[in-house]
């Protein structure tokens, strides 16, 4: 075969190699740079964000909003309204971390370089929330992950009529979503049903009422109080389908996307309530704030934790997730969402039996095949050996 | 006490996994370090709702050079004996060129491929056959070169692979001209160009020819559980061979003294002694941030990096759809969709992130793996190549919005070309930008890897031995 002519083709081939080599030789010998794409990526997904408490607002007796700004002056990572941060803080000698939805809007990051998070002091065995309430002051330092999670309005997928259902502290992401999405698109309509125990549990009530004034019919705010005092004239009891239909009209309900955020109990209740609507599951988005504890039979098992070849043997109670057991032992396991979703706690089960709720775990198919688990939603059913990756945040915290 | 290894491998992408496996197998004390908590690099998976998405892999081609040389798939399954289930793809691709009225399904197998083109472009058989035979010779020549490595006999090359030599300095377009391949036939042959990201009038024919032959000559496969299955199977294997693997272990420094590596330092402060480091992190990353002190960085290595230009970076739109592929009319596995096959124009459009005159490569995973998503649903992904520089002016403020614009363009293009409606069925949605394909050479034929005896290194850096 020939392309130009036999001899030329051969000569060009010889020259080609020389040309290539000379291009290598004449290139700059400067140290190469790492590229613009990588810089954008590290702004969007920083490994760690160093934050400090700037300001504390008392929302109710047991709900506080903490304004967190960059302790090191860095530009905070942008997020989508509805996403959460995993915060890390040392309390009583233990390095602990918990996910908190961001309650400020994405535009506040660009305008003021801060995030608000709103914490409700858990009743009973509060730990992180207790730490925040008892120790956090202006200037307190905490570490944070990049923003995470998929609980946000997505125009390609969702209806632009949103029915938001919050249980207790589950109201926090909606404070961000409502402002942001109403502002951003004119076609957006939002209704917020906010389930609370008593009137004085209502956080952001004034804000929501003034927003509904400002946005006219585009934002409907309906607090629903479980056991109100006599003077309460609003909705009472639970957020039932009937209550939603009555407030919005049947047609609106049929066309909306539901965003449901709160503890496990709220989700099972709403699943049941919404069933008669036969809404395709794409229109029902959930954020689960608390996974019910596993079966506690009082048993304590032996958990061997292996990290980079080092071994530690600790106790693990049957009703407690493996992540909690490891955290309690002071070994600070990697964990962000603590609800099976994000995969950050992914570890290898070397030996032993666990129980887990398959519907919760966002485990990859090949992970199941090769024996990896998400310890945040796994409970021991025998003695266990687990290989847990080291947690980079420990080093960031202690330097 | 400082841990000590014969070899440290930075990065558990397919390249790093392969290296770790080979080193463990040959009895070396090996440590594989990965900055993320997952193995695989590009070869991974991610979950949204009920869907587990394949982030990047479209197909693993047979990639056999000379028939006796082990191909990638044989390597994975027979040599490394990975615990993997691979699924064979139904067809090579469907090509739809909306402005040209082209809509054709192309098969694997060179003979079948030629038959289809001859039916659609009567009279093309002769030139296309010659063209495909030439592609085969190119791949065989590369097979010979990579087998002989430094014992290459150039007379043998000239005698056995003369056409490889004669076409070696030309572009893909020049060679098609020389063989008088009809333009209409080229439209059907060229879709894979977008995987290389260099227009045909600048793309080295050698690179193109070997790639085309490797894609078409044998059937292609994908792993049944996304690429994460390949990565996980490698991890399993390496551990069984006694290799150590650490996740969340970002290497921050490679300490060099007197031209010799002595240790690596992790971001969390841990120092590991090793005399050999294999890096799966890109050379630009290694030299821009890892090697210390700077004076130990060989100028030739910098030149080698700087002589290259970043190639396409890929943007992918992922759709989890709440109807089955049958209900949606997604009959095929692999779709290439463009207005036309003028690769120069399509390439120029890759500099503009809001361009609409573009070529997408879409895959409906369920056409190969029916149960890859729950019954009554399916997964469709749409990929385009763009210049990294196109994203340079995009900041965090408009990043999400730009991704939406891109998704709108790709979804609309697909719906119009295939004649189906996707929008109301989107249950899960994601857009990811992948960093540039590593080490894509300067898009000039002059700088192709034509004399690099390891063609696998160019665009499929993983999976090269
Ligand atoms: C959208 C898309 C579609 C594709 N489609 C196909 C296809 O259909 N067929 C095909 O064959 N190929 C395809 N590819 C290409 C293929 O996936 C990749 O080229 C290949 O997997 C690259 O593997 P690698 O091992 O070279 O590198 P990578 O996958 O980049 O792995 C490098 C690893 O090193 C780690 N690392 C980097 N720096 C450090 C550090 N300092 N310390 C520790 N670890 C570090 C990284 O985290 C990463 O895990 C596609 C790619 C993309 C993006
Ligand atoms: S912490 Fe998110 S899956 Fe376990």
Descriptive tags:
heterodimer, A: alpha/beta, Elongation Factor Tu (Ef-tu), domain 3, Rossmann fold, Ubiquitin-like (UB roll), six-stranded antiparallel β-sheet, six-stranded parallel β-sheet, 12 helices, 19 strands, globular, B: 465 residues, alpha/beta, FAD/NAD(P)-binding domain, seven-stranded mixed β-sheet, 16 helices, 18 strands, disordered C terminus, binds flavin-adenine dinucleotide, binds FE2/S2 (inorganic) cluster
Structure description:
Chain A folds into three domains: about 40-145, Translation factors (Elongation Factor Tu (Ef-tu), domain 3); about 160-290, Nucleotide-binding domain of ferredoxin-NADP reductase (FNR) module (Rossmann fold, 3-Layer(aba) Sandwich); about 300-400, Ubiquitin-like (UB roll) (Roll), CATH 3.10.20.30. In chain A, about 30% of the residues lie in helices and about 30% in strands. Chain A has twelve helices and 19 strands. Chain A has helices spanning about 5-25, 35-45, 105-110, 130-135, 170-185, 205-215, 240-250, 250-255, 265-275, 320-330, 365-370, 390-399, and strands spanning about 50-60, 65-70, 85-90, 95-100, 115-120, 140-145, 160-165, 190-195, 220-225, 235, 255-260, 285-290, 300-305, 310-315, 345-350, 355, 370-375, 380, 385. Chain A has a six-stranded antiparallel sheet. Chain A has a six-stranded parallel sheet with strand order 10-9-8-7-11-12, sandwiched between helices. In chain A, strands 14-13-19-15-17 form a five-stranded mixed sheet. Chain A is globular, with a radius of gyration of 26 Å. Chain B folds into three domains: about 5-55 and about 225-305, 3-Layer(bba) Sandwich (FAD/NAD(P)-binding domain); about 110-220 and about 455-465, no CATH class; about 310-450. In chain B, helix 1 packs parallel to helix 11 (about 225-240), helix 3 (about 110-120) packs antiparallel against helix 4 and helix 4 crosses helix 10 (about 205-215). The two termini of chain B are about 35 Å apart. Chains A and B meet through helix 1, helix 2, helix 11 and helix 12 of A and helix 6, helix 7, helix 11, helix 12 and helix 13 of B. The complex binds flavin-adenine dinucleotide and FE2/S2 (inorganic) cluster. Flavin-adenine dinucleotide binds next to helix 1 and strand 14 of chain B.
């Amino acid at each position: 075969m020939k392309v130009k002519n036999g001899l030329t083709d051969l000569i060009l081939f010889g020259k080609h190699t020389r040309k290539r080599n000379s291009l290598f030789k004449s290139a700059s010998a400067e140290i190469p740079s790492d590229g613009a794409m990588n810089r954008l990526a590290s702004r969007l997904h920083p490994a760690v964000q160093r934050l400090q408490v700037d300001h504390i607002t008392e929302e109710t007796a047991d709900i506080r909003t903490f304004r967190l700004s960059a302790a090191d002056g860095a530009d905070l990572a942008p997020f989508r309204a509805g996403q959460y941060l995993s915060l890390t803080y040392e309390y009583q000698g233990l390095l602990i971390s918990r996910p908190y939805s961001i309650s400020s809007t994405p535009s506040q990051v660009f305008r003021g370089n801060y995030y608000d998070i709103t914490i409700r002091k858990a009743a009973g065995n509060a730990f992180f929330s207790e730490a925040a309430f008892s120790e956090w002051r202006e200037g307190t330092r905490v570490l944070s992950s990049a923003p995470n999670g998929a609980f946000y309005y997505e125009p390609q997928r969702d209806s632009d009529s949103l029915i938001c259902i919050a249980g207790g502290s589950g109201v926090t992401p909606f404070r961000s979503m409502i402002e942001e999405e109403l502002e951003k698109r004119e076609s957006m309509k939002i209704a917020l049903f906010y389930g609370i125990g008593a009137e004085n549990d209502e956080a952001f009530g004034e804000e929501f009422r003034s927003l509904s004034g400002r946005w006219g019919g585009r934002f409907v705010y309906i607090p629903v109080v479980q056991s109100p005092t006599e003077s309460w004239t609003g909705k009472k009891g639970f957020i039932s389908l009937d209550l939603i239909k009555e407030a919005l009209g049947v047609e609106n309900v049929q066309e909306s996307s539901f965003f449901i955020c709160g503890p496990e109990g709220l989700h099972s209740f709403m699943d049941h309530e919404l069933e008669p609507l036969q809404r395709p599951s794409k229109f029902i988005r959930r954020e689960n704030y608390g996974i019910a504890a596993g079966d506690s039979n009082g048993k304590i098992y032996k958990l061997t934790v292996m990290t980079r070849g080092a071994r530690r043997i600790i106790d693990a109670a049957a009703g407690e997730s493996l992540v909690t057991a490891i955290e309690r032992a002071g070994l600070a396991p990697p964990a962000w969402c603590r609800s099976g979703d994000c995969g950050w706690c992914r570890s290898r089960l070397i030996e032993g039996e666990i129980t887990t709720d398959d519907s919760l775990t966002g485990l990859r198919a090949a992970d199941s095949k090769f024996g990896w688990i998400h310890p945040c939603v796994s409970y021991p059913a025998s003695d266990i050996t687990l290989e847990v990756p080291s947690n980079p945040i420990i080093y960031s915290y202690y330097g | 006490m400082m841990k000590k290894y014969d070899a440290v491998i930075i990065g558990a992408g397919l390249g790093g996994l392969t290296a770790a496996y080979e080193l463990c197998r040959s009895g070396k004390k090996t440590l594989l370090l990965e900055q993320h908590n997952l193995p695989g690099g590009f070869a991974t998976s991610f979950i949204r709702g009920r869907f587990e998405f394949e982030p990047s892999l479209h197909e693993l081609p047979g990639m056999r050079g000379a028939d006796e040389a082990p191909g990638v798939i044989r390597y994975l399954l027979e040599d490394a004996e990975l615990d993997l289930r691979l699924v064979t793809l139904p067809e090579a691709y469907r090509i739809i060129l909306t402005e040209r009225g082209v809509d054709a399904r192309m098969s694997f197998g060179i003979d079948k491929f030629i038959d289809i083109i001859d039916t659609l472009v009567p009279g093309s058989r002769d030139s296309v056959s010659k063209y495909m035979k030439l592609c085969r010779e190119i791949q065989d020549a590369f097979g010979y070169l990579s087998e002989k490595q430094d014992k290459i006999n150039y007379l043998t090359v000239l005698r056995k692979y003369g056409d490889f030599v004669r076409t070696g300095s030309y572009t893909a377009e020049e060679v098609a001209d020389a063989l008088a391949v009809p333009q209409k036939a080229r439209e059907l042959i060229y879709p894979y160009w977008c995987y290389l990201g260099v227009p045909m009038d600048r793309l080295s024919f050698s690179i193109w020819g070997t790639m085309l032959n490797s894609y078409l000559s044998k059937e292609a496969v994908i792993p049944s559980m996304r690429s994460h299955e390949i990565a996980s199977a490698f991890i399993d294997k390496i551990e069984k061979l006694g290799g150590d693997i650490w996740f969340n272990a970002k290497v921050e420094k490679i300490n060099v003294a007197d031209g010799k590596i002595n240790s690596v330092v992790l971001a969390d402060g841990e120092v590991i002694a090793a005399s050999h480091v294999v890096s799966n992190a890109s050379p630009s990353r290694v030299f821009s941030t890892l090697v210390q002190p700077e004076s130990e960085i060989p100028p030739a290595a910098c030149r080698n990096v700087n002589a290259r230009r970043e190639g396409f970076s890929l943007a992918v739109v992922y759709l989890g759809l709440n109807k089955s592929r049958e209900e949606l009319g997604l009959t095929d596995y692999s779709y290439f969709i463009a207005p036309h096959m003028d690769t120069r124009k399509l390439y120029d459009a890759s500099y503009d992130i809001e361009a609409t005159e573009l070529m997408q490569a879409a895959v409906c995973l369920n056409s190969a793996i029916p149960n890859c998503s729950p019954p009554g649903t399916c997964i469709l992904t749409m990929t385009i190549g763009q210049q990294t520089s196109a994203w340079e002016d995009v900041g965090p403020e408009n990043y999400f919005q730009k991704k939406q614009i891109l998704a709108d363009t790709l979804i609309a293009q697909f719906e119009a070309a295939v004649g189906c409606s996707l929008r109301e069925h989107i249950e899960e949605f994601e857009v990811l930008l992948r960093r540039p394909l590593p080490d894509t050479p300067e898009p000039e034929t002059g700088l192709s890897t034509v004399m690099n005896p390891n063609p696998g290194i160019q665009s499929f850096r993983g999976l090269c031995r």
